[in-house]
């Protein structure tokens, strides 16, 4: 089948000629060739199609000048130009990988992540700190697929690169410790998970601020570990930190959005894409369900979490979910003596009802 229509379909394949070729995905001996670029090879049609869907469709023709040796490419100017093109490819692959990871398409993310790492090694060398983002994305994809042994190997290489590079920034260190914490949570090493989430929070606060939504993601993951240990007072405290951060963030975002539209009941611009919306929704639902089932029945926590979810879905354009969570928030807020949550919740419900008219 052809791919001229731009769809992610398998493209015509042919036997490669000349010297021994290696599969783009697994590095085993290749028997098939991409007939579009003619510089990429595969061991079988399954790996060819996986690579096409994962990344090759985007970079097929970009590989031709890089993988076709000429007299110019062997000269200094040619080597510099090739390096620049590889840097561009790294960024393309990074963005494609991140998009697929955000959508939970871990298998499709693998080809882009693998190519990004290989290209990064070509540009920066085998042990440079610039490889860490590629290691982390590849680890994230394998984490989603349950390949924990592969994740451990990738993260050990990322840790080594960071240890050798004191100048490595806090944003990268936060990402490294977060996925290490998730790995140790998955393998049951809870104390190690807590240590890494502590470092995650520290470096995230340096990069983004103590009260950023990025930083509070570390608090949420840490709370989940404490929940596994049965340490509920700490869980309540951390969940409270998370929900207060999100409540402030969403309140400010809603206020800004409403001020920027002529008609208050106009459908607003979504503040997150679908994958981000789902991730935040899952986190806030976890906190709401915990608060509702908790023996302490903290009405403030229930009201805050439900109000967050109502704002999230109102901003996301789902008025039914916004109305449901808003009603839950209003009921909880009315159980809190002398609290100022009731009025903004009622205001949100008025906006939601206005959309349904």
Automatic annotation (TrEMBL):
<keyword id="KW-0863">Zinc-finger</keyword>
<keyword id="KW-0862">Zinc</keyword>
<dbReference type="GO" id="GO:0008270">
    <property type="term" value="F:zinc ion binding"/>
</dbReference>
<protein>
    <recommendedName>
        <fullName>MYND-type domain-containing protein</fullName>
    </recommendedName>
</protein>
<dbReference type="Pfam" id="PF01753">
    <property type="entry name" value="zf-MYND"/>
</dbReference>
<dbReference type="InterPro" id="IPR011990">
    <property type="entry name" value="TPR-like_helical_dom_sf"/>
</dbReference>
<feature type="domain" description="MYND-type">
    <location>
        <begin position="23"/>
        <end position="60"/>
    </location>
</feature>
<dbReference type="InterPro" id="IPR053248">
    <property type="entry name" value="Zinc_finger_MYND_domain"/>
</dbReference>
<keyword id="KW-0479">Metal-binding</keyword>
<dbReference type="InterPro" id="IPR002893">
    <property type="entry name" value="Znf_MYND"/>
</dbReference>
């Amino acid at each position: 089948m052809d791919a001229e229509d731009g769809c992610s379909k398998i493209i015509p394949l042919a036997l490669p000629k000349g010297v021994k070729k290696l599969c783009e995905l697994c590095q085993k001996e290749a028997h098939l060739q991409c007939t579009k670029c003619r510089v990429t090879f595969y061991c079988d049609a399954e790996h060819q199609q996986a690579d096409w869907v994962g990344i090759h469709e985007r970079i097929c023709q970009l590989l031709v000048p890089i993988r076709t040796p000429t007299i110019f490419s062997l000269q200094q100017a040619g080597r510099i130009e090739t390096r620049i093109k590889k840097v561009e490819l790294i960024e393309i692959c990074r963005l494609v990988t991140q998009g697929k990871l955000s959508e939970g398409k871990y298998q499709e993310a693998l080809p882009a992540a693998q190519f990004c790492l290989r290209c990064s090694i070509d540009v920066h060398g085998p042990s440079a700190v610039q490889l860490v983002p590629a290691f982390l994305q590849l680890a994230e994809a394998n984490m989603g697929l349950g390949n924990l042994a592969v994740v451990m190997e990738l993260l050990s290489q990322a840790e080594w690169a960071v240890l050798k590079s004191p100048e490595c920034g806090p944003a990268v260190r936060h990402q490294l410790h977060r996925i290490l914490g998730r790995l140790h949570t998955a393998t049951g090493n809870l104390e190690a998970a807590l240590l890494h989430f502590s470092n995650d929070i520290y470096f995230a606060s340096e990069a983004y601020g103590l009260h950023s939504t990025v930083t509070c993601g570390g608090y949420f993951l840490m709370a989940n570990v404490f929940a596994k240990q049965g340490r509920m007072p700490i869980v309540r405290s951390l969940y409270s930190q998370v929900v207060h951060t999100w409540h402030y963030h969403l309140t400010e975002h809603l206020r800004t959005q409403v001020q920027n539209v002529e008609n208050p009941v106009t459908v607003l611009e979504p503040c997150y894409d679908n994958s981000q919306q789902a991730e935040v929704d899952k986190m806030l639902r976890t906190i709401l369900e915990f608060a509702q089932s908790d023996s302490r029945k903290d009405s403030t926590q229930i009201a805050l979490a439900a109000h967050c979810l109502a704002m999230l879905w109102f901003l996301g354009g789902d008025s039914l979910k916004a109305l449901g969570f808003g009603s839950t928030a209003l009921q909880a807020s009315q159980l809190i003596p002398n609290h100022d949550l009731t009025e903004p919740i009622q205001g949100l419900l008025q906006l939601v009802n206005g959309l349904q008219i």
